[in-house]
Amino acid sequence: MIRSMTGFGKAAREFRGDAVTVELSAVNHRFLDVSLRLPGEWSAADLALREALRERVARGKLNVTVSRKRADGSAQRLRLDHGLAQQYIERARELAHLLGTDEGVRLDTIARFDDIFVAEEETADFDALRAFLTGLLQEALDSLDAMRANEGRALATDLHARLGAIRTSLAAIEARLPQLNELYLERLRLRIGELAQAANLAPERLALEVALAAERGDVTEETVRLKSHLDHADELINGQEPAGRKLNFLLQEMQREANTLASKVRDTEVVRHTLDIKSELERIREQIQNIE
User: Fold this and answer.
1) What is the pLDDT of residue 189?
2) What are the distances in angstroms from CA 57 to CA 33, 69, 141?
3) Are residues 180 and 215 in the same domain?
4) Tens digits of per-residue pLDDT, 262-274?
5) Which of 16, 63, 80, 209 lies 20 to 30 Å from 239, alpha-carbon distance?
6) 216 in the same domain as 137
7) Domain identity same for 267 and 191
8) Is it the case that residue 213 has pLDDT exceeding 60?
């Protein structure tokens, strides 16, 4: 069954005492576009998480946020680089001696150097971290998929109803065609009579006119192809694979057949039904923009 491209998912668990949360939000997009935000100390897991996302999501714009709340309440652990701090102090003393002053370096001056305080490196085993984050992401994706599946079912119900409305209009057109064929044959006989009275009309010209007139009025191919496209659309909607792109291409073919049918038949009733078909196709076009 088709799925919507929009939805939200969330999952949370503890990793070695720290609270970790993964949040996903998805909106429409022609292709797969992922924005992934990770704590800086876990950036090495970025590629593994992106691969996991590509396996589960075909297209859409995904915003993924992985947040971490440490057990001690801090956002990140810092440590003082004692060796580097000592070097700053010693070099400052050398500079003071060179300048002939006994002024020492102040604490607030030393603290301004970014490399004095260093973010503590993550000591957890990377394989364990990657497995944890990937598993938590899968939980969030399950939550996202549940929401997208629910919306997909609603979309499928609406699309089936609109395809059914098109079938009803198409059936009405096919019921009208025998009457139109009689009218068409009568006009064709009159046209042949007019052409036959022309003294300088060659037989091959007469045959060409008859063939062209017959082709202009025959919409059998259009109705057959349109019904075939409707059946294919139903199959895609009920299938298990992402169908958004295929439905979009199929819709273009259905619109082409509807336009051709409208241009060939100049009957008020048929034109009305054709306009109904084109109206439903436009509504379908809007709906499938949200299908994965």
Assistant:
1) 66
2) 10, 28, 9
3) yes
4) 888 778 888 899 9
5) 63
6) no
7) yes
8) no
